[in-house]
């Protein structure tokens, strides 16, 4: 008990600001916007739940949706290495604009990079 987690350091308010800014950037990104719904309200709500538990907070995502099985849940979408890079570039930008201090920011980004690579389920199209 009283355990310090990334979530408890970052705090709910900052985490929610991060996710809202992230999806604003996603909606403006030409490689990402085509595979996301126009209305990102529900997507952002689920991502707030997921990142809360991913960063050591309460298991909000699992309580409502069951085991995350993130790779399986992403299978309906074509996730190429370029799309993973695009996702990470939006996240890097959102993190930069959010008041999370180093070295925590870098640690969060590295964990998300690892997870994003894991979501890749398709090759980039040959040019
Ligand atoms: C859902 C794309 C990486 C967490 C989604 C959706 C898309 C998507 C299109 C569906 C949105 C909707 O219908 O509401 C991508 C792409 C990624 C990526 C292109 C690039 C690698 C990640 C990563 C995480 C993540 C790294 C976690 C850190 C989620 C969650 C959902 C979601 C929690 C909601 C799942 C649900 O419906 O319950 N993603 N994603 N995604 N993504 Fe990703």
Automatic annotation (TrEMBL):
Cofactor field: heme
Annotated keywords: Heme, Iron, Metal-binding, Transport
Gene Ontology molecular function: heme binding; metal ion binding; oxygen binding; oxygen carrier activity
Superkingdom of this protein's organism: Bacteria
Signal peptide per UniProt: none
Pfam families: Bac_globin
Entry similarity comment: Belongs to the truncated hemoglobin family. Group II subfamily.
Protein name: Globin
